[in-house]
Task: inverse folding
């Protein structure tokens, strides 16, 4: 029997605990939770605030009963305040100030990330919120309802900012979104960010790009927000959603090594530098499958996978995290925007690639069948090796954008050549696709352009008559 | 300059011609078309007949002008009647009986398939139709409109039968569908066929399974259809859609070798046994990527790919067809049904596998976000090697079934282990998926069941501590 202690009850922590109990039902698994909302879907907060998910209880991936019936012991409303690696214990304190020391055989740190608060004067004012926890969302909800807020201003045009612009518009508020860059969603290329910007504007969002917010101040019953280029607007509620930073103070103090952006350094087995201490989720560096080096890519999907690996290994398994590709999708009103892998600039910055990015547009399914929508697909490949580096898609929410990016993600997982994407045997019927799927026509357009630029380098097989695809293991 | 002659103007022939012109704009490419509808989307016929695509001209993938502007010379309404391999020529005849001899340097046979007419007495009666060409669909359309048909009877519950049941119901006809097997769509497992059957019945289709039609006869203004188990029903129009057979008489007579189901034998370069004669599409044996042997799998997607390979190779390229996995999707009213790879019985029949199939159900996206639908996913894997063998999905048409099966198809393309499917970095946002996509929870359920049945055989890595996945080529 092994005592596993887990700090954190979100995606990584819960996945770790469930995996441990699955592998060894005799293990004791205790989770220290900072709040009272174990295993809640943080990604669902915008939909609670939009009113589309009116009962916040439904945001739980699993109920407390589910978790406990699988043998997880939960310590809600407990803060871990000190890890003692030498004594293999963790000091925790509850909300009443009661302390206790918990012994472990193995520890998993899943403390997640915390929202970044930029150095803008006035963000401490009432009516200014970050949005990261259930409690944050209750505060926003109560404030919006309690004050009868009509005007919301969102600082930050990343994916949470966009989701909240959608959500609060859905709720009936007038929304202003202020983004410092020239386009929203800077995790995708500007041409796609502009498509998202158009969608926001068409849905009545007052979109302000290229403006840095410089001050927030309470005025009468409202908040006055001022920024560069003379920006000056009032709102009833302000959301600050400019990203997250790993929550690793506790780990650092105990001697756990950190790296990129302060995230905990881990092996692919999710081991930290200290014996019997593992870490997973938004608090750790994430191994990038394609780059084969650590990055910081906090995503729920990754947290689940890493938690699972950590939970098994904490009990002696030897699993390895297979890496992230940064695959992501967001719904913004009627659009879906998705990406996987590297963009042009990211690939250039790495130094090992000669990237080329090609944008194509194609109908999601045969135009003659009703309901066709145009997809915009950007394919990034390495003109030297011919390998796929990444892809981005924007299209209607009904256009299977999410699972189309996943085909690219599966291709990247196997380091496919761009040209081989057209060899994939993808499904077709006129209501859902074309005989060549839009991702294949996009890949073909890339190959054609790469050949123009690079001559035979991409057609490495033309000399030997051999198809250059090398990722096909022997048959059973 | 090279003279390329292509017999057939559907998917394979047109793809071949376009590829040839792309590789060598000085080549002369002539297509012999049996009808006057080059490059029409045969898969779109049900949507023309349903009324969803009212103008049949829109069914053309490309217009004749598009094709001619890309340098394809079209000979519509010409029947190829003799291939002379020794003299490198083809005799053709037009609808007026005018003959001519066309010389070639390379020939591509893309004669496609023809509908099977089962040996049922009375199928020659007026009002009984097959459905394979544009002209077939005009005949059905004119008959239904001209006679004011109200009752349709469809013989055959394969994908065209199901699409036509959907289409004619959409058009306002009362539809009876008669299938000899106990479930429709016998290309998927019976549990999924039953889900489709339920959908048909809910939409008002009179579904008759387990009945073999034995006779059709004209009675007064209608057709009387009788079958086993006392089946006896009248209809105004009868469709016979029980599958296709490769159209290879012309090729055989010229000495081209045929194999499975009479389909033309080809190499992966789409070469026949005769010099400078290639073949592609529904008239050829199709190399199965996973089985690594020929099969007969007539599909439009495959015809496009094979045509492309043949068109290049006819001009001296050395491309290889990368193989089919039989990936397919069909919309049936509000359901989508899709498959890729092998089913349990198919894998058993091959003799090299110990297949296990597991069925799971999961929401297509987080249940708390509106519009969630349940997906039924069947995963087939080999319990000896742990490799994925195939997958089948049924779910709502809005549930991204088509592109979900394509992720499995991409996994099969790379011979993934079932357990590694959970390592794929797939996209997630509550409106489109869950942190573990339903295809991943299905894969996990399979792994769990396989372990129970087979002990450590699937966990081949537990001894070495090495992850068993071997399909990851070296990084660039």
Result:
């Amino acid at each position: 029997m092994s005592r596993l202690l887990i700090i954190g009850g979100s995606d990584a922590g819960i996945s770790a605990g469930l995996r441990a109990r699955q592998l060894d039902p005799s293990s004791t698994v205790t989770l220290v939770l900072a709040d009272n909302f174990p295993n809640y879907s943080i990604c669902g907060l915008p939909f609670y605030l939009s009113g589309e998910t009116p009962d916040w209880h439904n945001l739980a991936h699993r109920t407390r009963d589910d978790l406990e019936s699988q043998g997880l012991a939960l310590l809600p409303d407990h803060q871990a305040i000190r890890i003692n690696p030498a004594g293999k214990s963790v000091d925790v304190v509850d909300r009443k100030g009661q302390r206790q020391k918990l012994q472990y055989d193995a520890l998993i740190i899943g403390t997640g990330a915390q929202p970044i608060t930029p150095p803008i004067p006035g963000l401490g004012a009432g009516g200014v919120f970050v949005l990261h926890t259930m409690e944050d969302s209750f505060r926003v909800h109560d404030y919006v309802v309690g004050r009868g807020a009509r005007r919301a201003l969102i600082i930050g045009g990343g994916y949470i900012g966009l989701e909240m612009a959608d959500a609060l518009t859905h709720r009936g508020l007038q929304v202003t979104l202020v983004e410092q860059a020239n386009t929203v969603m800077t995790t995708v290329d500007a041409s796609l960010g502009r498509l998202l910007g158009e969608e926001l504007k068409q849905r009545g969002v007052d979109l302000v790009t290229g403006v840095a917010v410089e001050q927030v101040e309470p005025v009468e019953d409202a908040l006055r927000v001022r920024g560069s280029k003379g920006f000056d607007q009032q709102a009833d509620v302000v959301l600050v959603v400019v990203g997250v930073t790993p929550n690793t103070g506790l780990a650092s103090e105990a001697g756990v090594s950190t790296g990129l952006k302060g995230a905990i350094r881990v092996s692919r087995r999710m081991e930290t530098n200290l014996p019997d201490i593992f870490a997973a989720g938004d608090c750790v560096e994430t191994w990038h499958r394609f780059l084969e080096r650590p990055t910081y890519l906090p995503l729920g999907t990754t947290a689940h996978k890493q938690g699972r690996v950590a939970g098994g290994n904490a009990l002696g398994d030897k699993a390895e995290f297979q890496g992230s590709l940064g695959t992501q999708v967001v719904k913004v009103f009627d659009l879906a925007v998705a990406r996987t892998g590297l963009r042009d600039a990211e690939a250039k910055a790495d130094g090992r690639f000669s990237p080329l990015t090609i944008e194509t547009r194609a109908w999601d399914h045969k135009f003659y069948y009703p309901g066709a929508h145009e997809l915009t697909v950007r394919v990034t490949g390495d003109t030297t090796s011919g390998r796929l580096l990444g892809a981005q898609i924007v299209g209607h929410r009904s256009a299977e954008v999410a699972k189309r990016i996943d085909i690219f993600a599966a291709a990247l997982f196997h380091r496919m050549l761009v040209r081989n994407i057209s060899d994939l045997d993808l499904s077709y019927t006129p209501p859902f696709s074309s005989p060549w799927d839009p991702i294949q026509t996009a890949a073909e357009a890339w190959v054609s352009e790469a050949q123009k630029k690079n001559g035979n380098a991409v057609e490495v097989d033309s000399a030997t008559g051999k198809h250059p695809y090398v990722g096909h293991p022997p048959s059973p």
Q: What stands out?
A: The first strand of chain A starts at residue 3 and ends at 7. Confidence is low (pLDDT under 50) at residues 456-476 of chain A. Chain A has three domains: 3-41+58-112+245-314, 128-242, 334-457. Residues 39 and 462 of chain A are 53 Å apart (CA to CA).
